[in-house]
């Protein structure tokens, strides 16, 4: 360790270099009265913004054909197990479709339910060629349903101006497509008002 004199000399020399504008008497006064705090301004750390991972755009998804079902997969029999899962899902959602269940309560839950796997029938349409199409819903988009029929044909049926019916355990529900122009994810959060349904 350095001797006290050496330390004293070092401190004086250091302060003279650090504070050249101050007189020796002022420095000595500071040393005898209080401790010297050397100012230090730490550099502010800039927070790195997390980069959000960007997903594919709608155009890129179309180009990559992410949601297209291959022709060899377009078979009704392949999706029957999906329909069985959907039936169990609806029974659990509605706490069992009992005869004494209130229809408006079940209807309200079906409006928000996921319809992938449901068997639907087009019962009414402004375009007669759509009437009678029956099949399992494979994909639901904002404006259309993609349905696989028993004849293994993939049909793209618009929601607008079409009425669909689905039946489960004797309970028949009607979907007015014109009031259903939402994506499945948006529909689950929407509050539907149970009103008298208007015709096409």
Automatic annotation (TrEMBL):
Gene3D superfamilies: Ribonuclease P/MRP, subunit p29. Signal peptide: none annotated. It is found in: Nucleus, Nucleolus. Keywords: Nucleus, Phosphoprotein, tRNA processing. Component of ribonuclease P, a ribonucleoprotein complex that generates mature tRNA molecules by cleaving their 5'-ends. Belongs to the eukaryotic/archaeal RNase P protein component 1 family. This is Ribonuclease P protein subunit p29. It comes from Edolisoma coerulescens.
């Amino acid at each position: 360790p350095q001797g006290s004199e050496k330390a004293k000399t070092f401190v004086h020399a250091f302060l003279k270099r650090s504070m050249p504008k101050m007189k020796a008497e002022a420095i000595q006064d500071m040393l005898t009265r209080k401790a010297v705090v050397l100012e230090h301004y730490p550099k502010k750390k800039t927070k790195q913004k997390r980069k959000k991972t960007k997903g594919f755009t709608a155009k890129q998804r179309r180009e990559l054909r992410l949601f297209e079902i291959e022709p060899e997969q377009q078979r009704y029999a392949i999706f029957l197990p999906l329909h069985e899962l959907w039936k169990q899902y609806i029974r659990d959602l509605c706490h069992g479709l009992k005869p004494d269940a209130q229809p408006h309560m079940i209807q309200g839950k079906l409006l928000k339910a996921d319809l992938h796997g449901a068997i639907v029938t087009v019962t009414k349409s402004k375009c007669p060629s759509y009437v009678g199409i029956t099949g399992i819903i494979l994909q639901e988009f904002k404006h259309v349903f993609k349905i696989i029929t028993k004849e293994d044909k993939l049909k793209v049926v618009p929601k607008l101006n079409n009425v669909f019916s689905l039946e489960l355990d004797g309970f028949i529900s009607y979907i007015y497509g014109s009031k259903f122009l939402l994506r499945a994810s948006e529909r689950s959060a929407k509050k539907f008002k149970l009103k008298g349904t208007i015709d096409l």
